[in-house]
Specification:
Helix content: 40-55%
Order of helices and strands: HHHHH
Structural class: mainly alpha
Distance between the termini: 21 Å
Low-confidence stretches: 91-97
CATH topology: Non-ribosomal Peptide Synthetase Peptidyl Carrier Protein, Chain A
Mean pLDDT: 88
Largest sheet: none
Shape: globular
CATH superfamily: ACP-like
Length: 97
């Protein structure tokens, strides 16, 4: 899974909790909660959506590391399970001998 795919997954998760947003309007360096009218419960639902989509556990202590689009992509890219990264590149066979 590359950064563009992760970014798309983050925007889809955000759209699940705030369907009124236009993903094209989300600025990558501005806090998501400042751009989208979501409360703490919606943010928690956003975290759950990310977990379900990407199979990444996000602890409450790390919420500040996913508060912008750019930070979320960086955080998630470092935590995507290796099998998911390989699958997005054409399968787990790649690199196997």
């Amino acid at each position: 899974m590359n950064e563009a795919e992760i970014k798309a997954a983050v925007l889809r998760a955000l759209a699940q909790v705030a369907p009124e947003i236009d993903p094209a309007d989300i600025r990558p360096d501005v806090r998501l909660r400042d751009q989208v009218d979501i409360d703490s419960m919606d943010f928690l639902n956003f975290v759950v959506e990310l977990h379900e989509a990407l199979k990444v556990d996000i602890s409450e202590a790390d919420y500040s590391q996913i508060d912008t689009l750019d930070k979320a992509v960086t955080y998630l890219a470092a935590r995507i399970p290796p099998a998911a990264r390989a699958a997005s590149r054409g399968g787990a066979q790649e690199g196997a001998t």
